[in-house]
Design goal:
This protein is of the alpha/beta class and about 350 residues long. Strand 4, helix 12 and strand 5 form a beta-alpha-beta unit. It starts with a helix and ends with a strand.
Length: about 350
């Protein structure tokens, strides 16, 4: 998709610590220049050829916003006077007449370059301390898989295309699963929705094919059209559906729509569907993560209330309870960390079945 490629081009690629520091430094230097109205094109001219992150650079360039600009300009004039004349100058009518317009322009020009260099050095240093390791943004192979997945939804309604694009570009789960080894083999995606996750895993070479089940007929139609020959999608009630055997079973954002007894029943049927040596992947809302959890729960309730997602309840299951239930079913489970080391309102559990 051309817009996705353009966005990645403007972001410059993988956000390493050096690229983050360079982007902040470039933005601060440009923002210090008294060239108001030209800061964005200057950021484009610098960031794109140097493969810096344009969005970070332009955000840093906004140091010259109306709130700080008067103080920034005054400081630059004083710094320019110190460099050109060897001393600071008082702000007075007499001094303004003596200096003249040309003098102030020279002081501002020299001072802005010096101030920009100073701010750039400080900003780069602080960024290097904050970004302690390279951020794991999607690499080229994942980008290709995202583009191919999005292309499958070209004929889908606009709201579905937007939703799929937003999930593929913003949900860290796609990177988490793309990094898992070994490959997933044949997938079963319970409550597949529009099927963007199994299709992404197929396009990235992590899965050989998939079966998707969902109780929303409209989403199933969108998913089936996007899947074509590489997957089978059908309308089923996850509470009663007979789950076919698969190498990897996905229960992504589905358990919390069920009552507790139904959750445990679905877990039992899902684990039974996992072939020996296979895996079950479960993602759920974590109710213990403060404001993040509260916002995510509010969003889920809104999705239910507006019929964006089908469901009659919202009952959360914590990591300890889930892992204990999986252990009783003969699975060894672990919680995957967030790929960027952040605290997410969701958790992702990988449960493995013995090959014996």
């Amino acid at each position: 998709m051309k817009w996705a490629r353009l966005w990645r081009r403007l972001r410059g690629g993988r956000l390493t610590r050096a690229r983050a520091a360079g982007s902040v430094a470039a933005g601060l230097f440009i923002g210090a220049l008294p060239l108001f109205g030209l800061h964005f094109p200057l950021c484009v001219a610098v960031a794109v050829p140097l493969s810096l992150d344009l969005m970070i650079a332009y955000l840093a360039a906004n140091i010259s916003n109306p709130l700080f600009a008067p103080f920034l300009i005054a400081g630059e004039i004083q710094l320019g006077a110190l460099l050109l004349e060897g001393h600071f100058i008082p702000f007075s009518v007499e001094q303004a007449r003596a200096t003249g317009v040309g003098g102030f322009v020279a002081q501002a020009a020299v001072g802005s370059v010096a101030m920009g260099g100073l701010l750039a050095a400080i900003g780069a240093g602080l960024t290097s301390l904050i970004v302690r390791r390279d951020a794991a943004l999607p690499g080229p192979s994942i980008d290709d898989a995202v583009d191919k997945t999005l292309a499958r939804y070209a004929r889908a309604p606009r709201r579905d295309r937007f939703y799929v694009a937003a999930k593929l570009h913003s949900d860290p789960m796609f990177r988490q699963l793309a990094a898992l080894e070994p490959p997933f083999g044949e997938l079963l995606d319970v409550a597949t929705g529009r099927a963007q996750l199994p299709l992404f895993l197929v396009e990235s070479g992590k899965a050989s094919g998939f079966t998707g089940l969902d109780w929303d007929e409209r989403k199933v139609r969108v998913a089936a059209d996007a899947a074509g020959e590489c997957g089978r999608v059908r309308t089923e009630d996850v509470n009663t559906a007979e789950l076919p055997a698969a190498d990897t079973v996905l229960l992504i954002d589905v358990l919390h729509y069920l009552e507790r007894d139904a959750q445990l029943g679905l877990l039992q049927r899902a684990t039974s569907a996992v072939r020996p040596g296979g895996r079950l992947l479960v993602r759920e809302l974590d109710p213990t993560r403060g404001l993040r959890s509260k916002l995510a729960i509010w969003a889920e309730r809104r999705a239910i209330g507006t019929s964006m997602n089908r469901g009659t309840t919202l009952e959360l299951i914590g990591t300890d309870e889930l892992c204990e239930a999986l252990s009783s079913l003969g699975f060894t489970s672990r919680v995957l960390p967030h790929p960027d080391g952040k605290l997410s309102p969701n958790y992702l559990v990988v449960a493995e079945r013995s090959a014996e």
